[in-house]
């Protein structure tokens, strides 16, 4: 029998990268990761595992500095026009990642997605885009949407909760948020929500238009075995959070191969499943945030309330879009 | 004519202490403030302005180390029993502050409140309590409640917005949140909300019981002239956030001398007053948070969305309760 997880345990499992303002974490950090940089840009864009940095072939496009622990992308012949520069960097990186994929250099690239994720600079300008499955190799910030759909019933609020398919590459069979998806380069959060709601939950656009934006959630996740691929990869994430109240009778149904079904669960049932560790870690975190925002988790009952709320909105140390 | 403030301007005015993970801020910080500590406790409890640390009389109870920039409270003869130790430290500090008040050493003590605020250690244990008006001298975290009451009308949501009395010591005549107050040692947030709702807005307990807890807001404020007292004092704050929907016809009315009246304003009217700088800085921040949570400020329209949301929930670098 495993111990039931507290809400703080659930936060710790998802937001599990050390905080840079804690002195011991600074040491841990500087000893364990390379800083990912782009030549000519002052900002650190992500953190790279030493085993990843060491596996990359020596080439003029990549500079590894073991003294400063910097790992710098230096694409040759970058055009001076900003838009052309973005396209050039993106193309050089794509060729490089494609060859790493073919050489099977990194396990995480087995989950190749053919989707481009944005990487931003300190002025929020797009620097380049990167194949989605490679984002954790470089530890860049990724962006997504998460929506909790719920229905008010005679028994109180119930939440629409999908179970992930056993065939999913990551976190098979675990419980999930009603709708979740990643933001590709150029995609707006609400657009992404509308697309994913139809794909994953068969919810039509006219229903999803009633969804309410509620802010963002940010956390810094270090991947473990359940995520697949190399262990220890960095995944700082920013999720745009939405709520959607569905009238009784409107039922989400799997629209693709992501979920096997949607269950309509009471708050107590959802909280039990969270405590049993049955939710995908970041989905449990999203539900903690939903419960805080709806007065279901309250300061009077939750001893870790202040720490939990602050950590749901971690300030990431990289530039963001 | 002054420039209209953006939402990020409003955040910057309230959360205006540098972030410790930004290298230049580290330099600024270590050059400008003493770390407030308690003998025997490893944690930094707050930041003290050098002009404050220098004004304190040389005494065995206070140790100022100009090399390490530490300013340490060392009450003699502290009992070993934890509860007695708390009472002893609180009493020694109270005597000290009372004499500083009589000597008029610090202007901020002219606003003496006769309320005790808690100071916590790294295990969330109460270390001692401190007269409210002295909290900014030591830069300790203070706790409060803020509630936005609103009414759904034919013209949409309207917010109940008080104007602070011209006689208030701090931020006279500025606009405020419906109900706000500070948490004394031992007081629970919801208790405090019920008490303040009656005192400030004449809202009875049976109405306030419908208020919904929505999380917390944290920010690190450096006091300017409008706050009264010494300029540059540190005020890291944690506010427990509540919403209350009032039915049409239930009207908040000034119950003490805090507010002159309550206006029922549309979202647009509130946003205009915010942009004109008419709200007390932390109340503007609370409204930004309310608008984010209600989908009124959205990523699609607000270029600073990600920074704003993250900064509404700043992780403070001190132990909290």
Automatic annotation (TrEMBL), chains A, B:
Question: Which CDD domains does the record match to this protein?
Answer: NUDIX_Tnr3_like
Q: Which PROSITE patterns match?
A: NUDIX
Domain (Nudix hydrolase): give its ranges. 130-287
Q: Which domain of life is it from?
A: Eukaryota
Protein name stated in the entry: Nudix hydrolase domain-containing protein
């Amino acid at each position: 029998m495993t111990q039931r997880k507290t809400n703080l345990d659930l936060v710790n499992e998802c937001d599990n990268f050390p905080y840079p303002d804690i002195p011991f974490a600074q040491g841990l950090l500087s000893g364990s990761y390379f800083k990912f940089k782009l030549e000519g840009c002052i900002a650190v864009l992500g953190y790279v595992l030493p085993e990843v940095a060491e596996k990359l072939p020596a080439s003029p496009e990549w500079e590894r500095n073991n003294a400063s622990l910097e790992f710098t992308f230096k694409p040759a012949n970058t055009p001076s026009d900003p838009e052309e520069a973005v396209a050039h960097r993106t193309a050089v990186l794509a060729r490089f990642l494609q060859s790493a994929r073919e050489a099977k250099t990194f396990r995480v690239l087995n989950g190749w997605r053919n989707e481009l994720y944005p990487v931003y600079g300190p002025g929020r300008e797009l620097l380049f885009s990167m194949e989605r499955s490679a984002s954790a190799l470089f530890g860049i910030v990724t962006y997504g949407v998460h929506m909790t759909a719920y229905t008010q019933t005679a028994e109180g609020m119930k939440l629409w909760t999908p179970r992930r398919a056993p065939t999913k590459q990551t976190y098979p069979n675990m419980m999930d948020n009603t709708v979740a998806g990643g933001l590709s380069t150029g995609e707006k959060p609400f657009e992404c929500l509308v697309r994913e709601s139809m794909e994953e939950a068969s919810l039509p656009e006219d229903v999803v238009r009633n969804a309410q934006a509620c802010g963002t959630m940010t956390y810094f996740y270090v991947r473990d075995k359940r995520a697949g691929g190399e262990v220890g990869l960095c995944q700082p994430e920013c999720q745009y959070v939405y709520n959607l109240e569905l009238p009784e009778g409107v039922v989400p149904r799997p629209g693709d191969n992501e979920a096997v079904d949607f269950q309509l669960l009471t708050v107590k049932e959802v909280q039990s499943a969270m405590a049993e560790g049955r939710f995908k870690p970041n989905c449990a975190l999203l539900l903690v945030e939903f419960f805080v925002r709806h007065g279901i988790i309250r300061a009077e009952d939750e001893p870790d309330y202040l720490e939990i709320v602050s950590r749901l909105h971690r300030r990431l140390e990289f530039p963001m879009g």
